[in-house]
Amino acid sequence: MTQEHTWISRCHVKQQDASGLIKYYSVQVACTARDTVELHQQLAKHLLGESLELQSIEYSRLIQQHLDKLDYYDQQSVSLAAQAAQQGYAIGELQPIESHSESLNSEGTSYLEIDSLSLQYQHDPKKPSWQQPWIDPELKNLLFKSDIRTYLLVDATSRNRITTTFDLDDYDEVKKQSLYSGQLAQELKQQAPYVIDITLTEEQLGDDNLVPKFHRDFFSNHWGKGTAILLHSQNDINDIVFHLKKFIKIRDTDGKWFYFRFFDPNIMNHYLQSIQRWPQRVSKWYGANGDKQLIRAYFCEDDDGGVANSYHLSQEHQLKTTGKIELTTEEFRLFEDYRWQQNKKLIEKEIRQDFPSEVESLNRNQINNWCEQGNEKGYTTPRALYDYCYAELMAQIHTFDLSQIEQYLSEQKNSHLEKSKLLYESTKDAVERYTKGTKG
């Protein structure tokens, strides 16, 4: 009979927590087995008993071979091996694997149905302006229905940038409520988020002449410009306001309070896509409890422009609203990822505006890749990243070696902002030298 041996393994595992969020860990496991085939079978079996799913094995070694490889005394491995020799199996402490926010979205069941719709309204060239419909007919059929109420969640700060003044008081034909309460609602009246009931009656749905001025102004001046989120619900405005107020100010797991700007459609669009496989969060935002739900759909403009995304709960979701709302580490990573994506888009926009002819031949993702490289090298602010992308662009166009400039900068004792400025100026000098040499 083949003798059993004690093995030590470093395993990567995943676990679904009480809220349905999948998390990843690295863990050391000791196990007895006759050979590696049996070992791997035993590891999967024992980890499953701990509610852990084996993803991969970084290494598996006989305990003595493992200790021989190390230049220090590994007390944890020795202790685990001793326990395994008596019990057949022992597991160490779970070590969280740091991951980007995409891990929330990487696998598992999606509880949201996400569809894209065009923001572009096509005017009929055969009709004069006064005969043009106030909204694209297909969009109207999607957003306004006789059996459901339509609400607008307005980001007043973004809206005011377009109107140049707070104009919501000018519209008496729609019912509106601030998500702020009491004195705060008065002090921040012009910056507060508002819920506006823009539901249309049967008569208004059938006759464009009866549509309120607010609707016409919104879809002609604000639709597609990131000033509001649309909602569908069968409940009245008081229920919607009460529900959304829960998310204005949220504690983290340490009890610290944060304001959440979810009423910015760009932020909400990124957030909903990121949490679509997180049942506890999805159920909270939709007020879902079994076959009941307060919010039927969210419509958020995509900050890439041109489209909006609709978010409906999957038909057979069977979600239940449980527990309190707390901002987790994973959500803070979502916000960091959002800021990072926004910074990259800003930098790409500015580079393309400043050097339109130079970027024409670039690979579609080249500027994005330069941002990633610059960030890894310590150029973390938008200004510093712009300088780094400029340097890479000029080096590629004029075919000079940027590494020589970077080597010089690495020897300087300056802040990252000072280094980025030096990088920009050094690159500019190199371009001027190249240009003079070419002319000569």
Rg for CA atoms: 29 Å
Strand content: 15-25%
Largest sheet: 7 strands, antiparallel
Helical segment count: 16
* Subunit organisation of the chains: single chain
| Count of individual beta strands | 16
Fraction of residues in helix: 40-55%
Secondary structure class reads alpha+beta
- Coarse morphology: globular
Instruction: Enumerate the strands of the largest sheet in spatial order, edge to edge or round the barrel.
Output: 6-16-15-10-7-9-8
Please, what is the average pLDDT?
A: 86
First CA to last CA: what distance?
85 Å
- What ranges have pLDDT less than 50 throughout 5 or more consecutive residues? none
Q: How many domains, in number, for the residues?
A: 3
